[in-house]
């Protein structure tokens, strides 16, 4: 399959990992990269004033001329699939032009963010959404509540978060690695007040906690049991931290309406023991106290930590079962990409459907149902 892949292709990002997977699966992939403009407040503060204001208003500037490049590429080459990954600068006129020039191509939009939230999209994104044959979301509520259909999406597919088996895998760690990255209880992630409060409560309960992530300079508290590194880690360092720690925490981000996150599959895939907030999606992905452990509130969190820090055998058994679940259930990028391509191939082509779906008609599914 000839694929035109539009996305933020920064090395070692999940977007770049998926492009590599498509190529590994034997597809001929042409990349149209751009820089992200919606990566949160830390990224946005670095923008010049005018682009920053336009982002806030929901009209991001196409400073890299992605729309023109998309149309130009459609005039020069033939593609079977247009894969667009979180590209809020793409406008309807560019997608319409591509569709006219490439009538045989399927058009897919994919984002790991909650597309129903305004700050994860744009005026341009919402205008172009009805033009795609398939919209893939990692947020189940986008599908079951019809949120993206209400914005005009023709067919919505749910695919949970996935991991890169070349990166997220168990590794042997030595004493130096454990000293550099390890912890009794580890959290890797951006600062949020609720997360910080939970980590502090663990520390006050006599538990040693170590934190890596952005934004923790805003955390004004301190405790001898709480070690805040004040820096993010990724890649092999991230994997080393998971593999050299006894328990890895999985907090959800309420502002993003998270029910599971990247770490929900990355921690178990690395053979780590995951202790995460209980949610319907977490319980669908892993069996509680068998493949991961879940909690509601700090009292249950502290109780589980105290229990499993004192039971090495149970902790290792659950971690091993969590990794097996990741492998057996196809939580890896390649399995997901196959499912998503199958969903795109099986969806009605835009030439076969009306521009507007019948009121109340559902066009939603999960990619696992299609594959």
TrEMBL record:
| Biased segments, Basic and acidic residues type | 349-371
Q: Which Pfam families match?
A: Glyco_trans_1_2
Q: Where is the Spore protein YkvP/CgeB glycosyl transferase-like domain?
A: 203-339
Region entry Disordered: which residue ranges?
Answer: 343-371
The identity of this protein, by name, is Spore protein YkvP/CgeB glycosyl transferase-like domain-containing protein
């Amino acid at each position: 399959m000839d694929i035109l892949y539009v996305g933020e292709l920064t090395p070692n990002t999940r977007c770049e990992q998926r492009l590599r997977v498509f190529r590994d699966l034997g597809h001929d992939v042409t990349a149209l990269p751009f820089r992200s403009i919606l990566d949160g407040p830390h990224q946005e503060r670095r923008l010049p004033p005018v682009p920053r204001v336009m982002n806030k208003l929901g009209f991001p500037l196409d400073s890299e001329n992605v729309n023109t490049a998309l149309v130009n590429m459609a005039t020069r080459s033939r593609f079977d699939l247009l894969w667009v990954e979180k590209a809020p600068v793409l406008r309807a006129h560019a997608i319409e032009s591509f569709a006219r020039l490439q009538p045989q191509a399927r058009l897919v939009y994919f984002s790991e963010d909650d597309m129903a939230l305004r700050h994860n999209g744009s005026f341009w994104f919402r205008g172009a959404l009805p033009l795609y044959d398939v919209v893939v979301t990692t947020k189940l509520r986008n599908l079951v509540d019809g949120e993206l259909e209400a914005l005009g999406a023709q067919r919505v597919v749910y695919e949970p978060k996935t991991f890169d088996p070349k990166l997220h895998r168990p590794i042997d760690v030595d004493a130096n690695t454990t000293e550099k990255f390890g912890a009794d209880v580890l959290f890797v992630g951006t600062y949020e007040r609720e997360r910080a409060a939970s980590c502090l409560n663990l520390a006050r309960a006599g538990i040693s906690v170590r934190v890596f992530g952005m934004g923790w300079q805003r955390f004004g508290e301190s405790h001898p049991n709480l070690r805040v590194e004040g820096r993010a880690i990724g890649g092999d360092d991230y994997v080393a931290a998971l593999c050299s720690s006894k328990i890895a925490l999985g907090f959800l981000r309420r502002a993003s309406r998270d029910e599971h996150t990247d770490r929900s599959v990355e921690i178990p895939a690395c053979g780590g023991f995951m202790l995460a907030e209980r949610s319907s999606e977490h319980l669908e992905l892993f069996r509680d106290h068998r493949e991961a452990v879940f909690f509601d509130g700090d009292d249950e969190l502290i109780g589980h930590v105290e229990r499993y820090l004192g039971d090495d055998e149970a902790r290792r058994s659950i971690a091993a079962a969590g990794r097996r679940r990741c492998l057996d259930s196809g939580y890896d990028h390649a399995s997901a990409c196959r499912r998503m391509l199958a969903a795109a191939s099986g969806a009605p082509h835009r030439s076969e459907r009306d521009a507007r779906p019948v009121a109340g008609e559902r066009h939603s599914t999960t990619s696992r149902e299609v594959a």
